[in-house]
Design a protein that fits this description.
The chain is of the alpha/beta class. A 7-stranded mixed sheet has the order 1-3-2-4-5-8-9, with helices on both faces. A two-stranded antiparallel sheet has the order 6-7. It is 37% helix and 18% strand. Helix 2 crosses helix 3.
């Protein structure tokens, strides 16, 4: 798949993958800071942003999209960073093409399959996508109108504002979704998918590069029960607990991520 991407700076390559409902433009401010030292690649994952839409939305397909992109850019070695859904994509990429990675940073997501009923956040995704599919954006007159509709199921203003970044006007001035909510809703099971836990399948450890998992302490996407299994799969993994942070660590504490990359990866 020919992904849309943004590119900043020069130096050792760092590819950053956004999460569900996100896009490359969520990372532009961080990319601008890192561009002083690195070549930053920000793709839009399939069914998001300006990248093509496709009825197939799996971690295998998304990791293959990234492999196709870095090959096109003639990048043979790079650091891969991923948030949430992008973090799971990065984990899958690391298992398929470990020799291409100089480092891996996973932001607030477990690489394992999540059962939707296990966390309030996963249940919320089903409600959000169902509601988004029910809305005809071409009938909306304003963002405020959309915000009012979503306020019925999302109490957080921050989450609603993030979601509504996907609402844009086309050349005719009519609202449309940048992402493809129907494809995402139809693939919720795949979005909840992940690695089998050690002991429930054949798991070969992934070695050869430093690995960091950032765990937001006000989020349930990584649980303490995930710590040991993560380190079985990624023996070099360091799990960093980030206090006073929600799922969007990179938006709330961007300097933490910037410092982590600068301190630990080649320039």
């Amino acid at each position: 798949m020919n992904l849309f991407y943004r590119e900043y700076g020069a130096g050792f390559p760092v590819v950053i993958l956004h999460g569900l409902y996100g896009s490359s433009d969520n990372w532009v401010s961080i990319a601008n800071e890192l561009a002083e030292s690195y070549r930053i690649i920000l793709p839009d994952l399939r069914n998001h942003g300006k990248s093509p839409h496709n009825i197939i939305h799996t971690y295998d397909s998304m990791s293959k999209d990234i492999h196709e992109l870095v090959q096109k850019l003639e990048i043979n070695k790079f650091v891969l960073v991923g948030h949430s859904m992008g973090g799971k994509t990065a984990s899958f990429f690391a298992r398929q093409w470990p020799d291409m990675l100089a480092g891996l940073v996973i932001i607030d997501i477990s690489p394992f399959r999540t059962e939707p009923e296990n966390t309030s956040s996963d249940t919320m995704h089903g409600h959000i996508l169902k509601k988004t599919c029910e809305i005809d954006p071409s009938l909306l007159k304003s963002r405020e109108e959309a915000d009012k509709i979503f306020s019925e199921i999302i109490s957080s203003v921050k989450v609603r504002n993030f979601l509504l970044k996907n609402l844009q006007r086309n050349n005719e001035g009519v609202y449309e979704w940048k992402h493809n909510p129907q494809n995402l809703y139809d693939n919720l099971e795949n979005i909840f998918d992940g690695f089998k836990r050690p002991g429930h399948g054949d798991i070969d450890p992934v070695r050869g590069f430093p690995v960091y998992f950032l765990k937001a302490m006000d989020s349930d996407y990584i649980g303490e029960q995930d710590y040991d299994p993560i380190q079985e799969i990624f023996p070099a993994a360091e799990i960093i607990e980030v206090p006073d942070s929600s799922h969007w660590i990179h938006a709330e504490k961007p300097q933490l991520l910037i410092k982590l990359l600068r301190d630990n990866f080649p320039v």
